[in-house]
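Something for you to look into today, if you have time. Just paste the record in under my message, thanks.
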Amino acid sequence: MHSDRSLLRSSFTANAVFALMLLAPGAFAQDEGGNGSYTAVAESQRPDFTFNTIDNEPRSADHWDGQVVLLDFWATWCAPCVREMPIFNDLRAKYHEQGFEVVGLAADERDRVAAFLERVPVDFPILFGNVFEVMDLSLAYGNAAQVLPFSVLIDRAGNVRYLQKPGGINREDLEKLIRSLL
C-alpha cells in the first residue's frame, strides 16, 4: 500500500512539473541573449547529500571535494535537460584534467535513468533519487522556482558560486564561469 502511494505521488509530481513546463514554455526557452544563463550568489557551503549511482553505489557530495563541480538537476522526461547533456559532456572532456567534474542528479527512477543512459550516453557521473528528495535538494541549492533543468557551479572549497537561471544554458557563459573557478 505504501509503495503504491509513493508511486502515485511520484507520478503526480512528474506530471505536474511536465504540465508546468507546457503551460510556461517561455520560462524554459534557451537563453540566446548575452545576459548570461547563471547568476552569481554569495558564497555558501554546498548542502551535503548522498544518492546512489546507477550501479547502486552511494555517493556523497564530498566525493568531489577539491574539484570545480557543475551539479546538474535533471529528469529523463525533461527535454531542455536532455539538450544540455552534450554541452556538459563537451565541457567535462575539455576541463576534466584541470579539476572540473559534472555530476548529474536525476529526479527519476533508477530503471528509467538506466534506460535513458543506454540511448543517450554521458561521460559524467549520474546519480538518481526520488523526485521529492531531489527537488527538495535543488531548493536547498537555490532552485527557488523549483524548475528543471537547474544546475549550480561549486568551487573547489565546496562553495556554491553560481545558479542557473530558469531556462537553458548558454555554453559560452558557462565555459567562462568554469574557467574562472579553475
